Fold this protein.
Amino acid sequence: MVLRTQEVLVSTTVLLVDDHELIRQGLRRAFERSADFEVVGEAGSIAEAFRKLEALVPQVVVVDVRLPDGSGLELVREVRKRRSDIGIVVLTMYAGDEQLFGALDAGASAYIQKDAPTD
C-alpha cells in the first residue's frame, strides 16, 4: 500500500500600510511573485491599519513612516505593544541613521528604503 501525503503550502500573511495606492499595488505584486507570502490586506492610514490588524491578524505588517493621520513609527510602537509576535517592516524613502534608529527603537523588525531592489 502506498500512502500519499498532500503537500500543504503555508504562506506568511502580510498587511501593507502606505498612503499611496500605487506603492501598495507595487508591493502586492512583488509579494505575489512568491508563494511564501500572501497579502491579506492593505491600509492607507493608521486608523485603517488598526482595523485591518484586528480583523485579519497578519503575521507581518509593512509600514510607511509618513501616513496622513500620523507617524508610521507610532503605529509600529502600538502594534509592538499589542503583538510581540508580529514582524514589522518599516518601508520609507527617507534615509539616514536617525530614521533607522527611530524605527528600530519603535520596535520594527526591519527597515527598508523604498529604492531597494524588489528581491
